[in-house]
């Protein structure tokens, strides 16, 4: 999920992206799967979420570093 946010944000962080855009990028429509991945990334300190219910995601510096470490 962090990689998808990173790709959508054109390799920048500190910018909000819609959950719908991330879902489309990943080609995943399973809400439970998306929620699980989002919760995991938030617990790790990689993503911030916005809205109730969540509709926006922001990759924080730790998340960008995690994405770059996987390359």
What does this structure look like?
The protein is of the alpha+beta class and 71 residues long. It has a single domain (2-69), classed as Arc Repressor Mutant, subunit A. 54% of the residues lie in helices and 15% in strands. It has 4 helices and 3 strands. The chain has a 3-stranded antiparallel β-sheet with strand order 1-3-2. The mean pLDDT is 92.
Radius of gyration of CA atoms, rounded to a whole number: 11 Å
| CATH homology superfamily name | Winged helix-like DNA-binding domain superfamily/Winged helix DNA-binding domain
What shape does the CA trace take? globular
- What CATH calls the topology is Arc Repressor Mutant, subunit A
How are helices and strands ordered from N to C? Answer: HEHHEEH
Count of domain modules:
1
User: Approximately how much helix is present in the residues?
Assistant: 40-55%
CATH architecture title: Orthogonal Bundle
What is the mean predicted local confidence, pLDDT? 92
Distance between the termini: 15 Å
Q: In oligomeric terms, what are we looking at?
A: single chain
Low-confidence stretches: none
Strand tally, please?
Answer: 3
Structural class: alpha+beta
Largest sheet: 3 strands, antiparallel
- Sequence of strands across the biggest β-sheet: 1-3-2
CATH hierarchy, class: Mainly Alpha
């Amino acid at each position: 999920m962090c990689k998808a946010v990173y790709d959508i944000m054109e390799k920048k962080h500190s910018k909000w992206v819609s959950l719908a855009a991330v879902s489309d990028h990943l080609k995943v429509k399973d809400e439970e799967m998306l929620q699980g991945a989002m919760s995991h990334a938030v617990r790790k300190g990689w993503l911030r979420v916005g809205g109730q219910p969540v509709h926006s995601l922001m990759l924080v510096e730790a998340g960008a570093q995690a994405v770059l470490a996987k390359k």
